[in-house]
Amino acid sequence: MLDREGYRANVGIVLLNSHNEVFWGKRVGQHSWQFPQGGIAHGESPEQAMYRELHEEVGLLPEHVQIIGRTRDWLRYDVPEEYLRRQHPTRVHRAAYRGQKQIWFLLRLVGLDSDIHLRASEHPEFDAWRWVPFWIELNSVIEFKRGVYQLALSELARYLTRGIKMQELVWGSPLDLMQSFYSKEGSVKDAKEGKYSND
Fold it and tell me: What positions carry the motif Nudix box (predicted)?
């Protein structure tokens, strides 16, 4: 379902291990890596959708994880029309569709690495995975999602800086990053929609 602005409701998942490294999944048959994410079905809450996607894409159950936090508001990104045509050449895309709006969840794995099963569903999203530093290399993220990834990690990092010394920062402290987004030219809405990237 699309909202009035043409965005489909979605959840994103940042899964941590005990070293504050994050789950990084390789998309099936591709050389691109990303966090688990997926659409919110009609009648689902974001939390219900998160648990469903977590099981479908990573094979984990609610008892395997602990919710640490979530983003306060929706974060949006636009999907370029040329990307849609390249990925789905036979599908007609409604002009109203612009992209995704996401609530991001930060989870802690309380189970074992062996609890992760990429083939828990009939249509796996990932064919490989690894743990990587929390401050991921943004250049490894597809370009039109980078702004949302940067905003999501920067907002969620506040939960980890409470009494926990994070690993050495790669691209800035969470508070400094969020402040820089909102002080740049453009509206707060532009920042939330991920229109600023880390160049």
Answer: 38-59
